[in-house]
Design a protein that fits this description.
The chain is built from twelve helices and no strands. By secondary structure, it is mainly α. The chain has one domain (about 15-300). The protein is globular.
Length: about 300
């Protein structure tokens, strides 16, 4: 018989594992982005995107061999396609962003994903977003202004690329959260790779340069890191609510800043840190608010009479 104490301990273990997975994902994504930045010195970002997902699919073949057709069964192909389309757009824009901008600045501006997700939920999902969350969203975009400082510092078009990437990534994030309720993490990652690879292939043809063996080795590593990072991210969202995980997801900034300093001698300015703090604080408030309202809805939900399902 399961006691309340057993349930509480199981919940605590799930949260601890989710925290471990999302911290690992933040670190792996930081390494991945550093490798992409290094490779784009010799290859076009769009070709690097193709190589990353091509090798990512290759590394999934052992799982496919082991799981067989059973692992591919899904009743949500439409949602997988939506996520794949968002993945293609977001990856291409994001790889351009980290090629043209300091890595920490690009990551900080990309923190706007939850803000766009809030707007998308209101516009397209019919979700009721009240004044507090709209104010928090507005404050978050003020953090973007702190980083860009229009009129006080030179604002170049690449600075808007991480924001555009965040817009598409918010679609992918919403789809991923929905898919993890019914799909295994490996299944979600497989369909992300197999459905997006044809688009990456067609686009890469127009920018193709024959890579050296050393670049191919790095490309293989990006495929491995990308799969591992997405697996950790998917597992974390399957184990705990986003409101608990988001503070740890923002570890991407210090991780990226430290790795970029070692690899490229980049030092983020104080405005990048300040703006990132404002964006992160507003996104955290939105996540906490959503979790609070969700708990209220569960408490207020009327209990069905006995015999009803």
């Amino acid at each position: 018989m399961t006691t309340p104490r057993d349930t509480a301990q199981a919940s605590a273990r799930s949260i601890a594992m989710a925290a471990l997975f999302i911290t690992a994902a933040a670190f792996l994504f930081s390494l991945l982005h550093t490798l992409v930045r290094h490779m784009t010195a010799d290859l076009h970002p769009f070709q690097v995107a193709f190589l990353r997902y091509a090798f990512g699919l290759i590394f999934l073949l052992p799982w496919l061999t082991r799981s067989g057709v059973t692992g591919l069964r899904t009743a949500r192909m439409g949602l997988h396609c939506v996520r794949a389309a968002a993945t293609v757009a977001g990856t291409l824009i994001w790889f351009m962003a980290i090629t043209l901008l300091p890595l920490a600045q690009a990551v900080a501006l990309n923190f706007t994903v939850p803000l766009f997700a809030t707007i998308g939920a209101a516009l397209f999902l019919g979700e009721i977003v009240r004044a507090r969350r709209w104010i928090a969203t507005l404050i978050g975009f003020c953090g973007v202004i702190v980083i860009l400082r229009p009129g006080l510092a030179e604002t170049t078009w690449p600075m808007f690329l991480p924001i555009a990437a965040a817009l598409t990534m918010s679609v992918s994030a919403i789809a991923m959260k929905a898919l993890t309720r019914t799909e295994a993490p490996a299944t979600v990652i497989f369909y992300q790779n197999i459905l997006s690879l044809p688009a990456f292939t067609i686009i890469a043809i127009f920018f193709w340069q024959t890579p050296s063996w050393s670049l191919l080795a790095l490309a293989a590593l990006t495929g491995l890191l990308g799969n591992a990072a997405h697996y950790c991210l998917t597992r974390s969202f399957a184990l705990a609510d986003a409101s608990l995980l988001m503070p740890l997801d923002y570890m991407r900034l210090p991780f990226s800043a430290a790795i970029a300093f070692i690899a490229f001698a980049e030092v983020p300015d104080i405005w990048t840190w300040a703006g990132a703090a404002v964006i992160a604080a507003s996104a955290l408030y939105i996540a906490r608010r959503e979790a609070h309202l969700a708990r209220i809805r569960v408490i207020e939900r009327p209990t069905a009479p006995i015999g009803h399902t």
